[in-house]
Amino acid sequence: MGNSYAGQLKTTRFEEVLHNSIEASLRSNNLVPRPIFSQLYLEAEQQLSSLEAGSRADNEEEEEEEEEEGSESSSPPVSYQMKPPPEGCCTTDGFCQAGKDLRLVSISNEHIEVPAGFLLVGAKSPNLPDHLLVCAVDKRFLPDDNGRNALLGFSGNCVGCGKKGFCYFTEFSNHINLKLTTQPKKQKHLKYYLVRNAQGALTKGSVICWKGAEFRGRQSSSSTCSSTLFQLPESSGLSGSTSSEPLPAANPSAPAGTQQTAAAIDHIPSTAAFSSAVYNGKESPKQQLVKNNLSALTRPSVLGTLTNSGPPKKRHKGWSPESPSSTETWNLQLNPQAPNRIKNDGGSLSSLPHSALVGPASSPMVGSGEPVSVPDNLLKICKAKPVIFKGHGNFPYLCGNINDVIVSPLLYTCYRNSQSLSRAYEQYGASTIQPISEEMQLLLTVYYLVQLASDQVPLIEDLEQIFMRSWRESHLSEIRQYQQAIPQTFPQVPSQIAPVTSAQLPWLAGLAASSCNDSVHIIECSYSLAEGLSEMFKLLIEGKLIKTNYVVIICASRNRAIDSCIVITGKYQARVLSESMLTPSDYQKEVNYQLVTGKVETLGSFFSTLCPEGDIDLLLEKFYQENQGHISSSLSASVNKPIALNGTGTAACTSYEIERHQIRPFQLAVAQKLLSHICSIADSSTQNLDLGSFEKIDFLICVPPSEVTYQQTLFHLWTLLNKEHLTKQRVEQYVMKLDAEAQIKFKVFLQNSMQNPHTLFVLIHDHAHWDLMSAMHSLYPQTELSTGLVDRLLNCREVKEAPNIVTLHVTSFPYALQTQHTHISPYNEIHWPSSYSNGVDLYHENKKYFGLSEFIESTLSGHSIPLLRYDSSFEAMVMALGKRFPRLHSAVIRTFVLIQHYSAAMMAVCGLSQMKNYTSVETLEITQNLINSSRQCPSGHGLMVVLRIPCTPLAAVAYERLYNVRERLALEDNFEIILGNPNSGITIGKHFVEQLKAWQKIEDVDWRPQTYLELEGLPCILIFSGMDPQGESLPRSLRYCDLRLINSSSLVRTTLEQELGLAAYFVSSEIHTEKAVVNDVLESDPEKLSSTDNEDEEVATEGITSSTSEKRSPMKRERSRSHDSASSSLSSKASSKTLRSSLLTKSSHQVLSNSAEETTNNYERQKQKVDKGAQTTISKHLPPVTEQLDTKQNIKSAQISITSSSSSPFSSSSSSSAPTHNSFILQTSQCSMTKASKQPPIVFLPKLVYDIITSTDSSGLPKSSSLLPYHSVMWASSFRPLMSKMMTCTEQSLYYRQWTVPKPIHMDYNNRNEGRMDTFHPRRLLLSGPPQIGKTGAYLQFLSILSRMLIRLTEVDVYDEEEININIKEESDQYYHQPGDMWPDLETFKKMPFDYTIHDPKYEDASLICSKLQTINSEERSMSRRQEDMYTRRQTTRMRLSKYAAYNTYHHCEQCHQYMGFNPRYQLYESTLHAFAFSYSMLGEEIQLHFIIPKSKEHHFVFSQPGRQLESMRLPLVTDKSEDYIKSPTFTPTTGRHEHGLFNLYHAMDGASHLHVLVVKEYEMAIYKKYWPNHIMLVLPSIFNSAGVGAAHFLIKELSYHNLELERNRQEELGIKPQDIWPFIVISDDSCVMWNSVEFDCSGDRKSDYTWTERNVSLKQILQHIEATPNVTHYALIGMRKWSSKTNSAEIKEPFSCCHVHDFIMLNVDLTQNVQYNQNRFTCDDVDFNLRVHSAGLLICRFNHFSVMKKQIAVGGQRSFHIKSKVSDTPVSISPAQYICAPDSKHTFLAAPAQLLLEKYLQYHSHRFFPLSLKNYSHPVLSVDCYLNLGPQIAVCYVSSRPHSLNISSSGLTFSGLLLYLCDSFVVASFLKKFHFLKGATLCVICQDRNSLRQTVVRLELEDEWQFRLRDEFQTANAKEDRPLFFLTGRHI
User: Fold this and answer.
1) So where are the chain's domains?
2) Hey, what CATH class is 1762-1933 in?
3) What's the half-sphere exposure (Cβ side, CA atoms, 13 Å) at 1327?
4) Is the pLDDT of residue 1335 over 90?
5) Strand pairing partners for 869?
6) Quick one: three-class SS letters along 47-112?
7) How many CB atoms are closer than 10 A to CB 8?
8) Element (H, E) at 877
9) pTM of whole model > 0.85?
10) In contact, 49 and 407? CB cutoff 8 Å
11) How far apart are alpha carbons 1641 and 703 in whole angstroms?
């Protein structure tokens, strides 16, 4: 692995090098030959330059093909012109020029003669990615197994045509038609050895292990996914990057990747690099040891330690395509070295467009020209590794000490992507709009670098947007011209900006860089980049680039393209960029390696030298020994004292309460949105979710493998389900940690889903952005078991295909699930709603949410306390140490510095005041408030400080160190230190457990906190470890969120936002954290502090003084402090003015330490304030600043502070005696935890992150939002529009769906849309909302309401009302039938009297019908109800649907899909429209009806043969009997209920064949047809569009009779008698849902001995039973009871009744031929019809053993009629009294049918016409030939004027009124004179017009007995064109 004797000539290689040099010079265009000896004397066995291994993204062969194709489209760095093929030769890919097939698939079975010493190898052609071309090559020119000893040059034969003796690979590649656009190289195209298998066929063998690629020499068979996982898109671009760990080689005989293994064993940390970074390494005995031991590959290592044993010209790239590692470790843009997870796309250079992958970078991989030697000791001299970004053109080889540099292709890729126009711009025409030139790109890059501050790091997104803006501006005119829709192509418009030439470029770049104080240095080369790089290294070594952060090297000449590269030499920038190239797993390994190998010990020893007083540990020990007794007792007193007080009940803190989980309005709204999405999926015509088939729900919540998150979710769920008294163990079955045991639990879940098809299973994936690794990339033993689990489980085939599993992804950061390949439809995304809309508070919450935007807002001027801060002194120390220890990872340095700061701060607070100089003010503030917090509360409540340390080993070090310091300082009872590891639970000391139990009133002896929420009020430092937070929630006592140690180089949107999400917080909305007015006062003059002299305001404004004062100082907000606890607020207010003045005069460090020191001496200051003394004795620790204080100012500030703040005596842990003013102090003390919960926590960030978070673009969008959204996705193009602050969540989603694509390691990578539209999974939803806002509560609430809804779907509300007017019913002991009789006996039935009284409860408000002289008390009739109460007050009960129920359109099941016409396997049902006309004399015209008949129902009808005209509807015979057939056609009139009407009778009919016709109005025809495509429709004529149910009944009956006549005529010709045709039809309401039957058990001896049960039966059974009634054709109407739970035995003892029937009737259209429904009626038309039928002497039979249940439907039906004014459209409530008016008056006319107005008026105001009749039931109103409802307080007596009609005996009856409604000629004067009326009785005559009104009065001789007045004439409030009804009233003389 390289020449280990650098500098000595190795004779064995001389020939090889010489050969190479000659060949190189022959090929080179340069005149100067390359030096031979320099190659041999330099450190010879260089690996590839780090650039060469970068951009390794996919299988090498594919990558290189892309490269060549890519180079065609974007100016190729190395142009190569093939010789034109000879005339007439074959140029087909896969064939040689002689036309012979060379493809392996074609000639694998042919015999091929191979000369001795030759081998058959497979060559790859860029044009045939899926094929190998067979070649015979001299094996001397091929490498051995170690990649060595291949002779330079080539010797080969063509196996097709047999031509031999090709001596140059260039010539040979031409012959076999490789058609290359880059320099032909055998290493690039000769890929595999070819071997014969057992069958003798030629197959692909092992990879040819070229030099420098030992790592790739693995057997191809082990990499089964190589050929399938990375199918290239049509663009031939590699569309992703992966990051997993290498597969172990399946073939142990294949050469192993020994270099990587060695790196793994040796823990070489310095090799961790960017995607393209490859380092030279030297062979070691360890590597030799591992070469034959593949099992050593047990853990991932940092890739990039590849060696190259050949001279530079012949170096090769990357790994073999079949190397198992290549399948997951390539990463074109950034990171082939991502063994565990794909790197976060580059931290600062954090993103790469998808087009980056259109052809891997060949030029960055291949060095050219003279090699450049990297100087020795570069890192030691420069204190940083320079990062070289390859730019344009050729890049030279690096040799020498290349471990000290890092090379990356990222910038090269960015340049190339910015030159390939996105598809979005192809519309402008390729010839019209040109991409940005290379010169302009480089110049813009220089401009960008020049404007960067010294503490800023370049971001690739910034550069891409700069290019984009520049391009758009330069082509604005063309784009605008195109957008004006010019159809033809237009000539190119010259650009407004003159193009930069290559000659001008260095001069312009130098000019740009001249203004930046040498931050950017330009080096111009005349010959090649090599000279510029050499000069740059020379300047670095000489120390001349100390001020320079960026070196731009340009090689520009007129005759060729420019070469360029950019070197990051700034120590800070180079460190950040190099560390950003590490994947998270590499980052952990690097840190772990440095800890394990003891490299950090130098850091520790350095810290100990900082403290002049000696080692901190010694100081601690000394302090411990000196103060052990005193401090521990005083501290324990201070801590335990409150508990004692608590016990006595004298001073307990009352503010403590654990927040209970309550559903907030927001959560309920989100839950309902989720439910509506589920319903919309179910309602869609795709049939993807059949909600109607589910009876209940089950669910499984998948959470990340964090024990705390798991317990937290369990607790949420348990509290929600607690009503059911479930144990926590029982709840555990519903929550699954995605860990090693998850598969078992998930398997059970899948089995349950298969076994319970009628249960809806909801699979909730919480924290869904965690682990989106593709399962294919996690099958390696090196990876964590949990990696890829989500993909393996949630995306498995069973979940995708199960029709009863709905998947809900829940996350705060949905971006990675919103790519071009996402499974989730944009319509299935639910975003957390906004609180405000147009300034209106949509949801009244009592708490305000503080999230990222609120935190950012707090940093703007005009706000009170900046909640986001950074610690400048900490950053300065880290930067200084970074320069001193360049080899240590900055995470290690930052952690050790912060631990040091916390340790020193704790010591300073405990009285070692000298230590305050070794911490920062921020850390001192945190520590002081933490330690003092528990002393301010009588119960000992305190604050939580979260210290976020992502790297677990570092977290363990920090815990151990801080724990030790705490013990030495005897603070172990003051606050707890908790190590929060995601894989384990919470461990806290017994003392603190007891405190928590006391506060939370927990009596369980074994209780331990299991979630962070249960640590409410516990003073503690929570060291939060783990690379990513996994959904853990923090308590309200959180006060500080210290994120100074987060990985600031990993600049990915999700990563940054989830770290800041830890601090997301709800504060009480009554307390406003920002009071601008108060702030201004405080900022302008601290002397005015007295204006805030009250405690409430103090809560909101404390600590503002110091922070606002700093806004005005030159140091900006670097040192802003929040003095949260009483101690700090006291000191800060007292010293704010002094601080402000001293900040300008003293050094910052001194001021900081002084102010910090002040806060440590609050006891002395308190004593001053209490005594109101002037400068009395001050402790020796008092800082010098205090001496500058004016005495009066000090006293005044002191007074203000003590009254306005909630101070505590225990403000310092100094050893002074306790204050004497205990009583006074306790009155002012307040629990700091309470205050903490009223304001959001303060967040400390790294400076780099702070700058990114707080900087915004022109639209106000935070810069972090435009970062790459997630580490396993990439941008689809550099040419993408900017995001905008105005974007809604939905628009952001659409943006990411358009502009991001998943990398191959992403689980959605293979979800490609290959011309299909079904890549979205229909049952997958995404809920997104800000962190900690309550998503868990929302989805649990969703589960709850979904469960209730499913139960509700299987239940209906049915009317459950007792029959009315039971007491009026004739009580008779006579029973005509036995209780168990199945059918009525005709003769017996004829003897039964007709019961005129209405018993149906829906007519409770109807007029009573008198049948004889009745004495009814007025109390027995209920008072009239208000109109609007009619619907709401009816009693219902909830019933579970039986299997015989009728359903609405929401029901879908397998059985009735075909019935409904929605089965996707069937063609959508075609229907035909048929006209059907018949004449009806009463209407005086022909009635034209239309039938819509689906093809499947045409067999029910008869059509004429020639024209297919509808002739009749087939009717069966009376004698027909069939078990599977219902004889009676069913008609259902309906309006306004296309969705809710119960028209699906499939189950009700138990599958029996039946004819069902929906009767609809013309204007509703289309909507009914849409919802019920397989139903027959009878469409009423348009004149009935505004008619009521009477019209529908009338037409149904008349049509049916007409059809009966037609059928009799038709079947008479067939020899069938007319009376044998079945005459019945069924008229059913659209709300009949179920039918019941009463079964009698009459086993007793006596008639009264019987029992009965009622059960649900099918409608088929009932209809067939009724149809089988003996002599059934003698009955005119047959009906059944309305069901009621209150039915008693007496009501059903008589099995048959002769009474009114309603809702569901069988009508004999033959017998009732001459009895019509009144087509004008809206209400009570069935009562009216029943009375007509009875008076005609026909039989009406009600089967009391059968009952119908009616569903309450809230829409449609009668309620669809709205009475409104005809004049204005504004809905005005119109009372029924206004429904009539005087004729010719100026009354407001109403837009409603006249008949409806009449009926409604009479119902509510008939007493105005019949005043004598009111409650006068013994004197009813005589109603002739009709029944109209006059309201419940007036009784009517119905008589028919028809001759021979049955009427009640009116003798002895005196009537109080007479109602004549549209009387016909049967009503004559003599008929009326039979009846007797009371004196003063009133008459009401109703006619169609005024003329007929007068005629009727004359014809009936009414004026003889009735007196009329002109003013007694009225009309309905209709306009003349609406044909009002007129009525005349008169008084009986």
Assistant:
1) 50-347, 372-486+497-583, 601-656+867-1015+1023-1028+1036-1068, 665-832+1289-1353, 1077-1109+1119-1144+1164-1230, 1457-1628, 1762-1933
2) alpha beta
3) 32
4) yes
5) 1244
6) CCCHHHHCCCCCCHHHHHHHHHHHHHHCCCCCCCCCCCCCCCCCCCCCECCCCCECEHHHHCCCCC
7) 11
8) helix 872-884
9) no
10) yes
11) 58
